[in-house]
Amino acid sequence: MVSFILKRLAVAIPTLLVLIVLSFVLMHAAPGGPFTRERAIPPEVLVNLNARYGLDEPLWKQIGTYLWNIVAHFDFGPSFVYPSRTVNDVIAQGFPITLTYGAISFLVAVIVGCSLGVAAAIKQNSWLDYLAVGISIGAQVLPNFVMAPILVLVFTLWLGWLPGGGWNDGQWEYLIMPVVALSTSFMASIARITRSSMLEVLAQNHIRTARAKGLPTRRILLRHALKPAMLPVISYLGPAFVTMITGSVVIDLFFSTGGIGLFFVNAALSRDYSVMMGITILIGGLTILFNLVVDILYAWIDPRIRY
Amino acid sequence: MLVEQQKMESLAGRLVEEEVKGRSPWADARRRFVRNKAAMLGLVILVFVGAFALFGPYIAAWSIDELDFMVLGQVAELGGPSIETGHYFGTDDLGRDLFARVVQGTQISLMVGLVGAAIAVIVGTLWGAIAGYVGGATDNVMMRTVDILMAIPYMFVLILLLVMFGRSIAMLFFGIGLLSWLDMSRIVRGQTLSLKNMEYIEAARATGVSGFRIILRHIVPNLLGIVAVYATLLVPLMILTESFISFLGLGVQEPLTSWGALISEGAGTMQYGTLWQLLFPLFFFVITLFGFFFVGDGLRDALDPKDR
């Protein structure tokens, strides 16, 4: 197991380095510098600015410094647009919020999705099954940026039950709609995957054996069926995590939750390259870390997998 | 002359005669597809949306950038959908005809979806087929590259690209195409690995056909089934990606528009009682995704060899 983890790390670390170098090179290849504005900046000021941000150094040295600061100090450098603010400030302000509702959405999607899928598989071709299948087909075409306006329309404008946006230190009324909007399509996907893999497992020989020797249904489902049925779900969690983090950008923008996505979009609109790169690298790092965890979890649950 | 006549007659007779031959796998698949009600419904929806995008401009009473000064400032009261004013879908917040704008949004979203999927299909198929067929170190390097690119947060890099190199449609195509072929190449590689030990490939190699030609003439045509299924499912994903970016206001720029941008505009103004601005683009977006998913699922069921 240790060598397996080490091997995965050996792939993960170069990936992260490639991401950092790639985004840096991209920024350099972009037409116009980070200080290109509508009004031209006097050349003397530009020289000073470039010196202040270290942009007058040769490219390899800039990349080296940037990389070293991130790896050694977790420092993503200053914002190019707001000189008083660093990228770290932005992350520190927005990330806890994203993490809060992101983690809740993730848990909701996994727990509700799995339960729905298992229930549908056990009671195949019952009304519950049709409901689950119906929801999972319908939710495929309801991504977060469609769910969010519909939820606000119904629960804020028509019914007046929930506030239409804001964060308010994460009070539950403010959390409900972001969580539902973010988790719906994943919940549906997880339910669909769980249902089909559970159906497949339930048709296998070891389940028939367990039934034949008279084990209680509950025990068969929980001990013998659930574990192998969860494998496809676990391998879906990696991509789901990435898409969910991406979706948080829409949530932040639409519900004004103040998470990291809001900063990303604002940075994109004001061409604040360093903030964009910082957030991209942070999320890339998280993605790689999460995929690592999923891989380890997978190898741990499935004893057939040996690397 | 007479002989000719006879010859022609017998030829005509042979043409009319029902050919007695085994059904090809493709004919089998077509039969299964036509029997699938959801897939046929999806196909009808897609034809409808395609016709809307193609012929919509001829039906629209207003052009895309014309402002209707009669409704300006009173959009909620006067700008609703009506036949008399010629605004079949109402107007947007600036008094522009929403029907014309939805038509244009449909055109652009469909185009992004189809072009993005086409790029993914071409690049992904070639990449995967070459990696799978050549094997060895080449395969290793090519698939590691795919692994690394896959771990990169797609949407963020795409937005980074769009912001840095300008938000043009060409850049959108390039960016989406650049990052969307990864899954395709993996699927194709897996399929190629199982194809490449087939006898007909061995025969081709024995007769001295070059590697590249084998890939193009013998491997790729046999991948067609799986590629077709995946491509159909890829189109809605591309549309989703583009709509996502346009919803954030980072995609296509005014005066051009797309479904995502229209949904975003409609969602921004829905509290002023102009609900049609949200519902019309949303309707076309949702039915199109449904259509593509149904057709994709139908194709998969029709072509799935496990089912036979």
UniProtKB/TrEMBL annotation, chain A:
Coiled-coil features, chain-numbered ranges: none
Bilayer topology annotation: Multi-pass membrane protein
Residue ranges of every copy of the ABC transmembrane type-1 domain listed in the record: 95-298
Keywords recorded for this protein, A-Z: Cell membrane, Membrane, Transmembrane, Transmembrane helix, Transport
Stated family: Belongs to the binding-protein-dependent transport system permease family.
Main location: membrane
Annotated transmembrane regions: 99-122, 142-162, 174-193, 229-255, 275-301
Subcellular localization, as worded in the UniProt entry: Cell membrane
A family per Pfam: BPD_transp_1_N
Protein name (database record): Oligopeptide ABC transporter permease OppB
Keyword presence, Cell membrane: yes
From TrEMBL, chain B:
Record field: transmembrane: 38-60, 108-134, 146-163, 169-188, 223-250, 278-299
Record localization: Cell inner membrane; Cell membrane
InterPro entries: BP-dependent_transpt_permease (IPR050366), MetI-like (IPR000515), MetI-like_sf (IPR035906), OppC_N (IPR025966)
Record-linked CDD domains: TM_PBP2
Record-linked Pfam families: BPD_transp_1, OppC_N
Predominant place of localization: membrane
Membrane topology type: Multi-pass membrane protein
S-adenosyl-L-methionine listed as a keyword: no
Family: Belongs to the binding-protein-dependent transport system permease family. OppBC subfamily.
Protein name, per record: Oligopeptide transport system permease protein OppC
Species classification: Bacteria, Pseudomonadati, Pseudomonadota, Alphaproteobacteria, Rhodobacterales
